[in-house]
# Entry
Amino acid sequence: MDNYRHTPCACVNCGKVVDAATGVNKDYERAPKDGDVAICIYCSHIMVYDNGKVRNPEGQEIIDIAADPDILRAINVIGEYNRRSRT
Ligand SMILES: [Zn+2]
# Structure
């Protein structure tokens, strides 16, 4: 998995700077593009890349995210990482 730096923007939930992305599988071994899902490493908030920023998912995006096992696994891994980091 490679990391991709991008223009900094703020997580819409916690406000921390989002300036890099790491793909969760080989289909995402590239820089993020509009419509790709982003999960904040600090608060696990789910967002969508849109025009160089991140925003909350809307409508069908929410349904698609909830049905994507790769995204759900990534959310669980990040959540577990954050829980262990606090202890
Ligand atoms: Zn956040």
Summary: The chain has one domain: 3-86. The pocket of zinc ion is lined by residues 11, 13-14, 16, 40, 42-43, 45 (CB under 6 Å).
